[in-house]
Amino acid sequence: MSSTKLIARTALLAAVITAPASSLADQGDWIVRVGAAMVDPDVSSDPIDVAGLTTLDGVDVDSDTQLGITGTYMLRDKWGISLLAATPFEHDISVSNTDISAGSTKHLPPTVTLQWYPRGGNDGWQPYLGLGINYTGFFDEEVDPELEAALGVITEPVTGVTDPVPASLSLDNSWGVALQAGVDIPLNEHWAVNAGVWWIDIDTKATIGTALADVKFDVELDPWVYMIGVAYTF
Predict the structure, then answer these.
(1) 3-state secondary structure string, 2-47?
(2) Do the Cβ atoms of 64 and 89 come closer than 8 Å?
(3) How confident is the model at residue 19 (pLDDT cuts 50, 70, 90)?
């Protein structure tokens, strides 16, 4: 288990057994949460048919941790609207069941959720649940030289040479559902420790472009996002 996941789960457990006598937010308040946010993809990839010459098992995508920021406006004592933002996440991509590094991409995942605070208006710890929508924009996609070298070997029956094949990578942007759970553990009237988790539906179509052909395949990323940090209410 990664250290980020362990810290987040420990904070959630602490919330269950800790109840400081402070009220965190009421109707009309703003809550700003800042912390370390880790995107941990749960990848399901279609096989990659390389121009009918061979079929690869798909791709794997690694995790990344960046600065996460959320802003919540309390519509009522028990209801809020929240926006998740972050510095750009960068993920390395590899070919499944091989040692081939395929490339990398960056993305931003702005997510809007409607949050429910079952203990809103009461003193003590404040758990919350959220349901909303995510937009993920991919950019700065790059192909690794290892993949270009592998394409050269695969296409040798067509080209007659095994030179690396120059390639490009593009990923379609995604809209999807987002689910959220979290907790604020008040330290005083304004400050709290925060831990949160999201599940986000992110589906994309990947295109590897070469002079010989374009290879397209679907990838479901569906990451868990873990965040641990502090909250400030004003």
Answers:
(1) CHHHHHHHHHHHHHHHCCCCCCCCCCCCEEEEEEEEEEECCCEECC
(2) yes
(3) very low
